[in-house]
Design brief:
Blueprint: E1 8-14, E2 19-25, E3 31-35, H1 42-48, E4 52-57, H2 63-66, H3 69-76, E5 80-83, E6 115-117, E7 122-125, E8 128-134, E9 143-147, E10 150-154, E11 157-158, E12 161-162, H4 172-181, E13 191-194, E14 200-201, H5 202-208
Parallel strand pairs: 3-4, 4-5, 5-6, 10-13
Antiparallel strand pairs: 1-2, 2-3, 7-8, 8-9, 9-10, 11-12, 13-14
Length: 214
Amino acid sequence: MPPYKMLKIETFTLGPLQTNCYLLTEETGKRGFIVDPGMQPKRLLERIKDLTIEAIVLTHAHFDHMGGVDAVRKAAGCPVYLHDEEADWLTDARKNGSARWSDVTEPLTTDPAEYSLAEGQKLELIGHTFKVMHTPGHSPGSVSLLCDQQLISGDVLFRMGVGRTDLPGGRERDLYDSIRGKLYKLDPNVRVYPGHGAQTTIGYEMANNPYVPA
């Protein structure tokens, strides 16, 4: 049986911006890791209290994706992975955006990530291999994670949408280069788990996404 069939992905939609946090577990259900622990992570913390959490991986460091890092890292005793382009965002409320959104949150900071992410890196977690794809545009350090036929895309590619590029560090050309030059090169059957909204597939977005110019 291919490894990806034994990989379970659970979604927790967290915080006022409805951010998708993903808990990935192996077939025994005893070990897992977390992608993007967003704000107000109470449900996530309850779910992982009896699990061994190997890592927190951040697709990028905007506040709605990193808001739960401090609580989860302390509860699970696990390291955090983040691309070097955003290495100082966790400690700076201006860079992660929380200082600018006072109507949504108080300023959020946490300790720096223990490990960095880079293009082509292979993460060995919970008995699976995850390929790191550097996919900037929404933010300079945005990454996507690929494991067999499953892709966690952060805020790069959504179902019938793309990540905004009008925030500090965003760049429209980079975003489209990331999507067309990397994500759209994947198998059309690859299932996409975005940072917000419903799941989709690469093939569906190639055929239907109105925001990605040909």
